[in-house]
Specification:
By secondary structure, the protein is mainly alpha-helical. The protein is built from five helices and two strands, in the order ββααααα.
Length: 153
């Protein structure tokens, strides 16, 4: 004779919200439920609340956080940072030039270097990309100045 014992009813809780999950709605609990836009907005708000940080540093950190968030869990170790900073330099060079954040970016890179996460070659490569964008911006501005005063015949 086979005895069957009913398992006690268990209450499962969502790992992030700690609210009870109905048995019919039970599925794999995941951190994917988080709204990345809300998290980034909250992060930007917290950065704005810093009083001992200048506006350039705040703007640099907002750009950096948005860049890292765009990788959605792909960046999980220090070994990813060299590629991440190079990709940031390539994709954000015009913004860094426009907002005059080159020095803030250089300090950000130096912090990574200080902690042994990137090498000096990464710093040189990133700053070369930003400097190249700055040169291109100056050249296009000079080209535009020469073109404004020209009169067609």
């Amino acid at each position: 004779m086979l005895l069957t014992i009913a398992a006690p009813r268990r209450i499962f809780y969502h790992s992030r919200w700690y609210s009870p999950v109905r048995p019919g709605a039970l599925r794999a609990d995941s951190d994917d439920d988080a709204d990345a836009a809300w998290i980034l907005e909250r992060s930007n708000h917290l950065i704005d609340e810093f009083s001992d940080v200048n506006t350039g540093e705040k703007e640099m950190m907002k750009l950096w956080n948005a860049h890292v968030a765009s990788y959605e869990g792909v960046v999980i170790a220090d070994r990813h940072v060299p590629g991440l900073v190079r990709a940031f330099a390539t994709s954000h060079a015009p913004v860094l030039v426009q907002k005059k954040l080159r020095n803030n970016f250089a300090l950000h890179l130096l912090n990574f270097y200080y902690y042994g996460v990137i090498g000096s070659d990464d710093i040189r490569a990133c700053l070369a990309v930003v400097d190249e964008a700055a040169t291109a911006t100056v050249a296009s501005a000079a080209e535009g100045d020469r073109g404004e005063g020209a009169v067609e015949k």
